[in-house]
Amino acid sequence: MRKIPMIIDTDPGIDDAMMLTLAFASEVIDVRLVTTCSGNISQDKTNYNARTFLSYIGADVEIARGLDQPIFRELEVAEDVHGESGFANVTFPEPTLPVSDRPAITAMLETIMESEEKVTIVATGPLTNVAALLLAHPETKPKIECISWMGGAAVGGNMSPTAEFNAYVDPHAVEIVFRSGVPIVMSGLDVTHKAYVTLAEANLILDMGTDFSDKVYKMLTFYLHIAEQTPFYEAHFAKVLRFHDLCAVMYVLKPELFIGEDYYVQVEMEGRLTAGTTVVDYTRRSGQTPNVHVLHSVDREGFVSEFMNAVEFIGERIRVK
Ligand code: RIB
Ligand code: CA
Q1: Which of 82, 172, 193, 244 is catalytic?
Q2: Which single residue of 82, 170, 276, 280 could bond 126 by disulfide (Cβ 3.0 to 4.6 Å)?
Q3: How far is residue 10 CA from its own chain's centroid?
Q4: Is the pLDDT of residue 189 over 70?
Q5: Which ligand has an atom closest to residue 169 CA?
């Protein structure tokens, strides 16, 4: 079976952990490298969380440290959303996976250039590492299949009224990546707000009865306090749990679950009120050539089914160990 060579750049984070669960449960994804970025919490914590979580689920993968700070802005974290540790109040055993002796950018460069096939980059945090790779090593561009990024939004924000968190933390990195010419798929809030798990579905996870499903359930329900902050324009949504980052991997695995369009997308880098806002030219009045495939709809039931299967698969694999 042809596997998809993948590099995952992530800032775990609760929904990042759900994304890693999906990626490492899949038989068709070959994760060749995990790199950590600063975002939800600091680099020290995201790298530690990646190592504890991936050690716990039995993954065997290199985990390399990325950059500590955004390109120009001061790092702003989201401990209010993911908890001080980044994993709510859930703890995992001490990691057996080490920190790679290669910095992230070097590890990404060598992984991409050594691969016979093009490599897909899944990014679920600020794009600082990916931007640095493309700036320092443009020779990698033709060997990248696409960058599937959770971030941005055509309408609305969650870090400010107009800016989504990953774009807000490092808008200069977004600008570098969006201008790179590399194919980009953007899972912005437009689609991730529709890719939710209901409380009833979360209870089905609890019913799985494994140590892993218990930990996932605790993470999901910690996230509930965020669900209650549903923006007014989605007031009709009940309390639901949005695992934004799952979309970035799910699209690579099951593109047929999504609907999107190619648009010209820019990012506001300096606006006093709007920094981090991704400006999606969905009115197509700019006349500019589209540079991003923007997802806007998802088959939610199909999405949740894939996620639940992954949680069950990993939970059973750990139980059997
Ligand atoms: O806006 C949602 C994004 O910000 C997700 O990647 C979440 O993990 C946080 O990093
Ligand atoms: Ca994230």
Answers
A1: 244
A2: 170
A3: 6
A4: yes
A5: 1
